[in-house]
Design goal:
Elements lengths: L1 H38 L36 H21 L3 H12 L25 H15 L11 H11 L11 H4 L10 E5 L5 E5 L5 H10 L1 E2 L5 E4 L2 E2 L3
Helix pairs in contact: 2-3, 2-4, 3-7, 4-5
C-alpha cells in the first residue's frame, strides 16, 4: 500500500515539474515578446519641450502647442536606418540647400526609411519625377529635396528656423491634402494631444483605399525629434531625449 502511495506521489511530482516547466516557458515567451516590443518602441523618447536644444525656432503657429511625451511610430529600426542613410540625406540636402532632417522625415512618412522600397514611385513616393529613376535612392533623395524647396518657394535653407515655412513645405510635398496644414496627418499627427490619432482618408499606393488612424508621427514631429537628437562625432544619432541608441 505504501508503495502505491509512493508511486502516486512520484507521479504528482512529475506533473508539478511539468507544469512548472510550461509556466517558465510561457513567461519566457512573454518576456521575449516584451523585449521585442521595447526594441521597436522609443518609449518616452521625446522631450517635453522642442526648443533650446539646437537653438531657437520661430515656432509661428506651433509655438503654443505642448509636445506629447512619446513617439507613436518611430522605432529603433527607423533610427538605425536614418543613421545608415545619413550620408545620402546630407548630400542631397546640401546640394539643394534644405535641412537633411526634412528629407529623413519625408522618407519616414513615405517608406519607413527604407532606401530599397520597391513601390512604383520609389522610397520618396515621387510622382513628379522628371527623367530620374525614382527607385534610385540618391537620385530620389535629390529630387525630394528639390520638391521641398519648390513647395517652400525657395525659402528653405539648411539651417532654417521658421516652422511655418517648414510645415508648409511638408504639406505641399503631400499635395496640400486635408485643406490645411493643421488638418494634415502627414504633417501634424502626434504633434500634441489635439493631433493624436489623426484620421487618414484617401487612396494609397496601388489604388488601395486607406481610412483609419495614422500610425506614424507627422513629418513636423519627426523633424523636431531629429533636430533635438544627440549625435556622435560621426554625425550618427546616439540619443533622443533620455533614450540612448546604439548607432
Amino acid at each position: 500500500m505504501k508503495k502505491k502511495i509512493f508511486i502516486k506521489n512520484k507521479e504528482r511530482g512529475v506533473v508539478v515539474i511539468a507544469i512548472a516547466a510550461i509556466a517558465a516557458a510561457v513567461i519566457g515567451i512573454v518576456l521575449a515578446g516584451f523585449l521585442l516590443i521595447f526594441d521597436f518602441s522609443l518609449i518616452g523618447a521625446l522631450m517635453s519641450n522642442p526648443l533650446g536644444v539646437v537653438g531657437e525656432f520661430v515656432m509661428g503657429n506651433y509655438g503654443n502647442l505642448s509636445q506629447p511625451s512619446r513617439s507613436i511610430g518611430l522605432s529603433r529600426n527607423h533610427i538605425r536606418s536614418i543613421n545608415e542613410n545619413m550620408s545620402v540625406y546630407k548630400k542631397a540636402a546640401a546640394e539643394v540647400n534644405v535641412p537633411w532632417e526634412m528629407l529623413a522625415a519625408i522618407h519616414y512618412r513615405e517608406s519607413d526609411c527604407n532606401p530599397n522600397y520597391k513601390g512604383v514611385d520609389g522610397p520618396f513616393q515621387i510622382t513628379n519625377h522628371g527623367n530620374i529613376d525614382v527607385k534610385d535612392f540618391p537620385a530620389a533623395a535629390r529630387r525630394a529635396a528639390e520638391i521641398l524647396q519648390e513647395k517652400a518657394g525657395g525659402k528653405l535653407t539648411q539651417d532654417i528656423n521658421d516652422m511655418n515655412i517648414i510645415a508648409d513645405a511638408f504639406w505641399g510635398y503631400n499635395g496640400k491634402a486635408y485643406g490645411s496644414v493643421d488638418n494634415s496627418p502627414y504633417v501634424m499627427n502626434n504633434w500634441d494631444d489635439t493631433h493624436k490619432g489623426m484620421i487618414i482618408d484617401g487612396i494609397g499606393e496601388f489604388g488601395k483605399r486607406v481610412h483609419g488612424p495614422d500610425s506614424h508621427d507627422g513629418a513636423l514631429k519627426i523633424f523636431i525629434i531629429l533636430k533635438n537628437a544627440t549625435y556622435n562625432d560621426d554625425g550618427k544619432i546616439i540619443k533622443i531625449g533620455d533614450y540612448e541608441i546604439d548607432p
